[in-house]
Amino acid sequence: MTTSGPEPRYDRRAASRVLAALARPGLGAPAVLPPPRRIEYTCAPLQPEPGSHLTMSQRLYLERFMRPCRADQVTSASHRIAWTDSDGIPNTGHFRAGGLGPIVPIAMRETVLTLWHALQADTALAQRMSQLSARDEAVLEGTTTDHEPFEIFRVGIEAAGRALAQHALLARWTPYRSPAEFAVGMRDSGIYSAVATRWYWELQASSYRRGMIAVTLATQPDGTVRYSAETVATLRAMKDMTIEDAHRVMRRATLVEGLSVPEAIAKYHDELDLISRQYALLAPGTRPACLAAMPHQLDGEHYSILPVVIDKFTDAFTRIVDRVTVAEVAADTGSDTAELGAEDRVFYVPDMTCKHCIRTVTGVLESMSIGVAEIDLVSKRVIAEFRSPRNRHRAFEALRDSGYTPTLVTPAPAATETAV
Fold first, then answer.
1. In this structure, are residues 410 and 348 in contact, taking their beta carbons and an 8 Å threshold?
2. Which of 48, 100, 183, 374 has a CA 20 to 30 Å removed from the CA of 19?
3. Keyword Magnesium, does the record have it (predicted)?
4. Which is nearest to 15 in space by CA: 212, 170, 172, 149?
């Protein structure tokens, strides 16, 4: 994005139209399917709190960020898995026993990578993005979290994958018996549109990382599935409460603290992660709309981005899932007596994106009496005073339970979260 020109402008419909105009001629080169691949993963059962089906991390997130949703409205994964994808990036995912198994999150990730590579290879799209006007750039900068169209499209593809894997926790209560059938059923049932329009920003990424979903699916006579009436009502109530929380913080910041709107956003979104940037800027009484789901008339034709992304994702997933073989391997838990060198106390958390994440990671480690010597948000690096390899393994498990993916490998730069 340019640093001069028009001031950033918050306008969701205009931002959606800019993205639609970029995507309509073609979003990604033809996907090149990966070769058949065997992917190994480690697996650990989630540990619910006594008398509950939720883990402590799930309960805390529910109580703080999902009001007025009840615990009995939430389905939890039964197992957490960890694996390294074909791009060499460590991943954490979840599945529920009796469902479709670990193949869904693993094949989903391979599908996301395939579509990311296709996006990167689309030279015509790159050319269109390079020719954006200063006015269009200002709208994207003022409206979206990621600003750059390429990153917005990348995160949109990833969000589609998360939606598939997260709803797969409910697969046993649907008529779909295979991963490919489930993916097609999700698309044909309009579930992705329901996620785009009914969920609130941050809910999907945060609840996905914790292996939980506040949805009940109802099978229809035609074999499709729909959100239950209670689910629709609860999601709306959660969204309304989140919007009101964001507006309340903004009113206090601007009227009581005397901050400008940009200063308030910088403090309470970028620094403290207490509000959704998009909701904070939303005009009072306005119902938010997903950028990808907004319809537009372009060159006399009806167009929106979401169906295009979902069709591409579903087509790629149904072909890739048969090319991936998964195998569970034992996790190396380490020793209680072996000593750790200085380099063994360094690890990385690729999905640590804000100061709230820093507080969470620090809190998890300190709750285990593990001192944190350094934590850097830019490099994602953490230096902790582990007592032994097994102590480090247990700390990593606790961080995964909190929705993070600790790794000993220096991570590649990652896209930030946004709502497309």
1. yes
2. 183
3. no
4. 149
Residue with tokens 């509000």: 275
Do you find a cis peptide bond into 68, omega within 30 degrees of 0? yes
Whole domain around residue 122: which residue ranges? 12-240+289-327
3-state percent breakdown (helix, strand, coil) of the chain, nearest 5: 50, 15, 40
Residue type at 357? C
Burial of 211 (0-12, 13-18, 19+ CB in 10 A): buried
Domain boundary among 308, 327, 346: 327
At 312, which amino acid appears? K
187 with 73, same domain: the answer is: yes
Residue 259, classed as helix, strand or coil, is coil
Q: Are residues 402 and 296 in the same domain?
A: no
pLDDT tens string 42-57 = 999 998 999 999 998 8
pTM over 0.90: no
Give the orientation angle of helix 179-188 with respect to helix 305-320, to 10 degrees.
170
* CA-based max dimension of the chain: 71
Q: Tell me the pLDDT tens digit for each residue of 329-354.
A: 997 766 666 667 777 889 999 888 77
Q: For residue 272, what are the contacts with CB-CB under 8 A and spacing of at least 6?
A: 355, 356
Look-up of token digits 């010597």: 373
CA distance 400 to 278: 28
Cα dihedral 259, 265, 269, 275, rounded to 10, equals 80
SS (H, E, C) 75-101: EECCEEEEEECCCCCEEEEEECCCCCC
Rounded Cα gap, residues 109 and 224, in angstroms: 25
End-to-end CA distance of the chain: 18
Residues 375, 322 within the same domain: no
